[in-house]
Amino acid sequence: MNSAVNEGNEKMKTTPTPTQNDSQVSLEEEKVRLQAEEEAKVGKLEEEKSQMKSEDEEKLRLEEEARSNAETEKNTKLDEEAQLKTETEENTRMAEEEEKVKLEEEAQLKA
Q1: Tens digit of pLDDT for each residue in 20-76?
Q2: For 79, what's the count of Cα atoms within 13 Å in the CB-facing half-sphere?
Q3: 3-class SS at 16?
Q4: Minimal CB count within 10 Å: which of 13, 28, 72, 76?
Q5: Which distant-in-sequence residues (6+ apart) come within 8 Å of 26 by Cβ?
Q6: pLDDT at residue 77 is higher than 60
């Protein structure tokens, strides 16, 4: 019987008490919880970073599109002005030619 008591005492020395075991489990759980929180924060920051990058890319795309549209509009206006100038010059030349022909005809009639 004495050896059974001694054996029981030895087990108690090597076996952690419920409080020690509970505190170890609590520490592990807390460690896991904190790690999960940290991973969630990192994930959220990465998501925000990605969203900001997407927004910046969209903003740049829209700015480039606006520049391109303005350039196209400017070129179209310049083309229209050049076309109008050409037509005006052609009309003026034709009017001068008609006036010249008319004056020549009048000169021939008087002669």
Answers
A1: 666 777 889 999 999 999 999 999 999 999 999 999 999 999 999 999 999 999 999
A2: 6
A3: coil
A4: 13
A5: none
A6: yes
Residue recorded with tokens 């070129």: 75
Tell which residue, 30, 49, 26, 48, has the closest CA to residue 38: 30
8 Å CB contact between 48 and 56: no
| Angle made by CA atoms 25, 27, 33, in degrees to the nearest 5 | 100
Q: Say how far apart CA 108 and CA 111 lie, in whole Å.
A: 5
Residues in the chain: 111
Contacts of 29 (CB under 8 A, 6+ apart): none
Task: Tell the residue number behind the tokens 């795309």, with chain if given.
Answer: 61
Query: The tokens 């509970």 sit on which residue?
Result: 22
- The answer to whether 43 and 35 are in contact (CB under 8 A) is no
